[in-house]
């Protein structure tokens, strides 16, 4: 997974995405805030969701408790 | 040939039809075709990593990357090599040629995408993809296909020209003549009835005859 390293830490793009999701749940705004191309946002969000750090509902993205906890480690 | 055309499982991509879906390991992680919805995509294959013509092409693709970005076009490379080979190669290009490869490359070791897109030409090689280019529009429709042999590197100016033409065609509902470049006159679609043909010559276009009229946009 490109966003989450094998040791559970976040890659630079993973961290950018997780931070962007903490600010907005909308894909377009997440893209703007993360500075990543749209295809990387979509593939990255999918990878973060597979890692249990995000959930999606009606095309909106939400940090899980685990995602919030991990993000706090980087603040 | 009859079977190939009638069996969608074996059919190769065709212009104007949906591009085959994929979910592939790339140098930027797992990527699906649908991740590009809303952007134009140039999906291109090369024979192999660490080969001379391919290296010159990758440098050339990187050089037009910003121009493509301005046109809302993403690049996605592919070859039948491992992701580790791709990573080593792009790092080598950066180290030796000082060019960063900014786009992902599919590691198509099981030839799944290469087969779906008809990138393998057994007359050339069963193990390496030829130099194929698929231009896919923001709705996932195949809009152009170009096939080059392994011996001949592609022309980036032509790829940009092709993108400009497709986007201009979509915006203005016109066609573009041979060797057309941005700023040149475009072709007004020919009239489809005798009545419209008679009217066409009075419409102020630059006409050679009723079927070949051009205009500025």
Structure description:
The complex is a heterodimer of chains A (75) and B (217). Chain A has 75 residues and is mostly helical. Chain A contains 4 helices and 2 strands; from the N terminus they run αααββα. Chain A has a two-stranded antiparallel sheet with strand order 1-2. The N and C termini of chain A lie far apart (22 Å). Helices cover 31% and strands 22% of the residues of chain B. In chain B, the strands form 3 sheets. A 5-stranded mixed sheet of chain B has the order 5-4-3-6-7. In chain B, strands 8-10-9 form a 3-stranded antiparallel sheet, with no helix packed on it. The longest helix of chain B has 17 residues, at 156-172. Chain B starts with a helix and ends with a strand. Mean pLDDT of chain B is 94; it is low at 1-9. The interface between A and B is small, with 12 and 11 residues.
SSE layout and pairings?
The complex is a heterodimer of chains A (about 80) and B (about 220).
Chain A (H helix, E strand, L loop, with lengths): L11 H12 L3 H8 L3 H13 L3 E4 L2 E4 L1 H9 L2
Antiparallel strand pairs in A: 1-2
Helix pairs in contact in A: 1-2, 1-3
Chain B lengths: L1 H5 L16 E4 L2 E4 L7 E6 L6 H12 L1 H6 L2 E7 L3 H15 L7 E3 L4 H5 L14 E6 L5 E7 L7 H17 L13 E3 L5 H7 L5 E4 L2 E4 L2
Parallel strand pairs in B: 3-4, 4-5
Antiparallel strand pairs in B: 1-2, 3-6, 6-7, 8-10, 9-10
How many distinct beta strands of chain A? 2
H/E series of chain A, N to C? Answer: HHHEEH
Rg value of chain B = 20 Å
Helix and strand run of chain B: HEEEHHEHEHEEHEHEE
The number of distinct helices of chain B, counting runs of at least 4 residues, comes to: 7
Q: How far is the N terminus from the C terminus of chain B?
A: 42 Å
Unreliable parts of chain A: none
In total, the number of domains of chain A comes to: 1
**Portion of residues in helices of chain B?**
25-40%
Shape of chain B: elongated
Biggest beta-sheet profile of chain B: 5 strands, mixed
- What name does CATH use for the topology of the largest domain in chain B? Glutaredoxin
The main sheet of chain B orders its strands as 5-4-3-6-7
The CATH homologous superfamily name of the largest domain in chain B equals Glutaredoxin
For the secondary structure, the number of strands of chain B is 10
